[in-house]
Description:
The protein is mostly helical. The chain has one domain (2-237): Four Helix Bundle (Hemerythrin (Met), subunit A) (Up-down Bundle), CATH 1.20.120. 64% of the residues lie in helices and 6% in strands. It has helices at residues 2-28, 44-64, 68-74, 83-101, 115-138, 141-144, 147-154, 176-186, 193-221, 223-231, and strands at residues 108-111, 190-192, 238-241, 244-247. Strands 1-2 form a two-stranded antiparallel ribbon. A two-stranded antiparallel ribbon has the order 3-4. Helix 1 runs antiparallel to helix 7 (147-154), helix 2 (44-64) runs parallel beside helix 9 (193-221) and helix 8 packs antiparallel against helix 9.
Amino acid sequence: xxxxxxxxxxxxxxxxxxxxxxxxxxxxxxxxxxxxxxxxxxxxxxxxxxxxxxxxxxxxxxxxxxxxxxxxxxxxxxxxxxxxxxxxxxxxxxxxxxxxxxxxxxxxxxxxxxxxxxxxxxxxxxxxxxxxxxxxxxxxxxxxxxxxxxxxxxxxxxxxxxxxxxxxxxxxxxxxxxxxxxxxxxxxxxxxxxxxxxxxxxxxxxxxxxxxxxxxxxxxxxxxxxxxxxxxxxxxxxxxxxxxxxxx
Length: 248
């Protein structure tokens, strides 16, 4: 059972990693066989229905399964040690479905041809992905993606309870992972209608997801998180001037 848990967690993590790397090419429009603008266009109605459906499947899975109440119910059927790995696996499968079924809207909204400006936009794109990945390591990457739990089980150790910490980026913004995704999704020299639909929909999901996540954090950490929230901006740093704090 312990070896199976480690193997299962490792496979779930490997699928996540491949899915994450594919996401960079999917959004950026390079390397991968299918990206956000590739494929044969279909009717506008079909495109909107399919694209919003696959985005909705990911959003519902990703948010619902992360809620404490769902976890308490879910772990009646799934061993707690692989609960996180299962969540990661299902989230990855939801993203793979999105990559597979996404319909393009190729008409161009904006197209930046100037080389310096395009290079600056690509720099923001890569900064976004770097922020996402590095932020996961700041708060314990292997716990976030289920490997820590299965390895502790293999060693007959208890997984330590979640701790509230604010390392590096978290001292400037409360949600650097989400900020990184927003930078990566919006920073493109050539914005198609399909890419714009993706960026708007994921931004809406992120803003809703933050509210749900912060409700859980307040329930878990109480006044510590409440004080942190009052001092640190959600997605942008807060500027301090003459003893007063204002949101930027």
